[in-house]
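Lab notebook: predicted structure, single chain.

Context: the supervisor wants predicted structures on file for every construct in the current expression panel, including those that have not yet been purified. This is the next one on the list. No modifications to the sequence; it matches the entry in the shared construct table.
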Amino acid sequence: TCAIAPFRYAFMALSGEARMLRFSNFLFPESRDPARDADVIADSIAEAKLCDELGVEVLWLAEHHFDGNCAYVDPVTFAAAVLAATKRIKVGFAVAQVSLHHPMRLAEEMSLLDNIGKGRVIVGLGRGTAYNVYEYQGYGIPHEEALERYEEAEGIMLKAWTSPDGFTHEGKHWTLKVPRLRPTPFTKPHPTMIRAASSEEGALHLARRGVPFLMNVQSNATTAKRLALYAATMAEAGFDAAHVMRCLDESWVWRNVVVAPTDEEARRIGIPAFEAMQEHRKTLREKIYAEQGIIMKREVVPPARVDPDAALIAGSPATVAAKMAEIEATGVGGVICSFRLGPMAADVAAGSIRLFMQEVAPRFAGQVAAAAD
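Prediction complete. Output recorded below exactly as produced.
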């Protein structure tokens, strides 16, 4: 466990904040057959509505292209549909692949979504995939430029949202003369933002900036260690204890989750779906490497991300609640739960979400309160 967790709880008690661990859904629907894309997209809208009805706090959207790993592909367009179809749930990006977008177009789109949702948007930003070179090739963008494009684009987006008289920008990738952005953001001074950090180095970089972050799938031990370093680094950078604790509470960690009436049924459903998902995600990447000899980064991943015994929380409501309590003890503010894994049927994922929100989430303070309003 992590020593920072009691301090987070103490700060929340002093501030009058009642919530502890929060829960969200990562809507990441796989579609292996192009002929079924429309069905999977319709299922995804239905899942978003279900999460809204059950009081899930955030619905996170992914961005992946060309491989069927994410059926709706474009999270910006899909977010508009979700916001129009729901009433309460926040819609977050986990993440928008910033290096594939023109920053002014993305700033406009996010501002529009912020208005459509009346502040229900969380703009999650990342540079883009570190492994799937075909995504960059399909957009005609050199993958070697991904990080520098992301860093320049983030600054442009912030200027666009906060410059009422317009601004100019001269950078490596964009030279811009921008009048005032319209529509102006609903959320002031700009839409809620969060950044992804898949490595310890990335997390500490964000700590020095004093901002919360999204973490990938990892072991609880790694989560606790990284959060402790993150908090210490933020304090060393001069941020006070209240700011540090707010950032911890606004940070999220990703886990794969399957809930069923019994442990045996959950594993029977979850393990084959998880393994099929992992296999599918590397197939096209390996195909491109075999055909072109191009590899961005050799994927050496820990068991906590690919081994179902380590990377999958599958069990009865009691078992899953115990696992969530372990995550809560690391000090992180929220869990991004991936419920629909690989080829899992939509109704199976919906059943898992219902069980989680009805029998797991209520064991943690602050959950499903929105649904009861």
